[in-house]
Amino acid sequence: MTHTPVFCSIIPPHVLDKLARDGNDAALRTLEADAALRTRRRVTGVREAAAPAPSDAGSAKPNRTIYDAGHQEVLPGRKVRGEGDAPGPDATVNRAHAGLGATFDLFRAVYGRDSLDGAGLPLHASVHYGQRYNNAFWDGQQMVFGDGDGDLFLDFTIPVDVIGHELTHGFTQHTANLEYYGQSGALNESVSDVFGVLVKQHALGQSTTQADWLIGAGLLGPGVDHGTALRSMKAPGTAYDDDVLGKDPQPAHMDHYVRTSRDNGGVHINSGIPNHAFYLLATELGGNAWERAGQIWYDVMTGGALTPEDRFAEFAAATVAAARARYGDGTELQAVLKAWSAVGLPSD
Description:
Elements: E1 8-9, H1 13-21, H2 25-44, E2 64-68, E3 78-82, H3 91-111, E4 123-127, E5 136-138, E6 143-145, H4 160-173, H5 182-204, E7 214-215, E8 231-232, E9 241-242, E10 246-247, H6 263-266, H7 272-285, H8 292-302, H9 312-327, H10 331-342
Parallel strand pairs: 2-4, 4-6
Antiparallel strand pairs: 1-5, 2-3, 5-6, 7-8, 9-10
């Protein structure tokens, strides 16, 4: 499979577009930086990567390196922390290091996967990117975090699920390689939300009933009066309804699927539908979401049944097959069928 690198960022373009139209300078600068990065990815492809360090199949340790971009837009920046180094005085560096570790731990401890590619891929991240840069992204090879503007968005290393979300784009790049457009792109985003919340829940030891099921809680700054996060898997469309940010546009059901040419065909919007299906499955099964519900999603992503262009219906059918293959025709399978039916996607 060709692992096509894409530029995947956590803040949906429709949010930045609204802010820029309203005269927000930080949003305009972020959009300009993101456009330049997307062009660079198309022109140059993935940067030549260092070969992964040889991986001991029994090793449980990540290989992390954190760089400081020094508020410039040149990557990766100055190395400030390597694997095994003690925490330093920069809280952003320490959070990035911990978030990379929490993501590695979920994939390794729960699913037996050695890093994002299954072969010990080193995890690199650059912090303090740009000036008041309101985003975090996976660029096909590494994580990059802005500091936010301090008003609408805070430091992008604060929510560990944001770190897990963006790193999961790397996991998808090395597995199903879902095209970043339309329904396959919305699935790409949804898979990142799923494993992003699983990283958080696993790190905090939260059950399905204890978890908040939010993406980006703690990221919104004091300038946002009515918002709790970027997205809600429990109740898509309710994460924010604010004069500055606008209204969360995510649907929870196929009846409200949004057809648009913007945002790569609405990848950050329609991801609410498969997101909600996963929430319904996980809460129906109860316990820890990373166990049975997460295992089914992991099996789908790594089982080879998906194609890069698959739509919601094909993904739903793949989860049914994965649930039946691993658990038989019992509780898990029935919960999968019920979850997809509830969002308007009968899958069997």
